[in-house]
Design brief:
By secondary structure, the protein is mostly helical. The protein has one domain. 63% of the residues lie in helices and 0% in strands. It has 10 helices and no strands. The longest helix has 24 residues. The chain is globular. The termini are far apart. Bound molecules: zinc ion. The site of zinc ion has 8 residues, from loops.
């Protein structure tokens, strides 16, 4: 085999570094801190280690599809129009113009109302002040551990429902949103007994 020239060796190194991604060398704390800074630009300080511990707890006590949903949300890896810099699409649930945006989905009154109809005992609010974003980011105050697991379940319920509504391309419809969210809750319960238990604790 021919010995690679210096140029080849250099480009191999660059490709390798591209594949590995220089950003991937950052620690979990650094990656999460950057995400939190995106969601809470005004925050003076935040406890990243506590957030990571909570995420690890979710990953240990709930199935991977729910833990993945949480991670995708808090790192803003959702296919909203705003992520693709297409500000024209409306909220998939309430229909407000230009609001197909995860930041709006955390604050959407229609979503909050449906979510709390389905999970009335979920303490964390999905509403319009900063504490709700902290809850969404696993950083809010939590008195009981099932509330933390409930937030994870809510991430999956809300965001899978929005994905389905987007795929169908239909106009916003509150009744249909609630039906889809309930269907997703049933699916979670069928797929995993731990998710079913948390759901039952927060629903009754
Ligand atoms: Zn909305």
């Amino acid at each position: 085999m021919r010995k690679p020239t210096q140029t080849n060796a250099q480009s191999n190194a660059s490709i390798s570094s591209l594949i590995r991604g220089t950003r991937c060398k950052r620690t979990a704390q650094e990656v999460m801190a950057a995400r939190v800074r995106y969601w809470l630009p005004e925050a003076q300080e935040f406890n990243i280690n506590r957030m990571i511990r909570r995420y690890a707890y979710i990953a240990k006590h709930l199935p991977a599809f729910i833990a993945t949903a949480v991670l995708k949300s808090i790192t803003n890896c959702r296919c909203t129009s705003s992520r693709f810099h297409d500000g024209g699409s409306p909220c998939r649930v309430c229909g407000e113009d230009g609001k197909d945006d995860l930041r709006h989905y955390i604050n959407c009154n229609a979503i909050r109302s449906i979510l709390h109809t389905i999970l009335p005992k979920l303490e964390a609010q999905w509403g319009d002040d900063i504490s709700n974003i902290e809850g969404f980011m696993l950083m809010g105050r939590m008195r009981r551990v099932e509330q933390l697991l409930g937030i994870a379940i809510a991430h999956d319920l809300v965001l899978c429902t929005i994905n389905t509504l987007r795929t169908r391309g239909q106009a916003a419809n509150l009744l249909q949103t609630e039906q889809l969210m309930r269907a997703r809750a049933r699916q979670q319960a069928v797929r995993d007994i731990r998710a079913r238990k948390v759901f039952q604790q927060l629903a009754n």
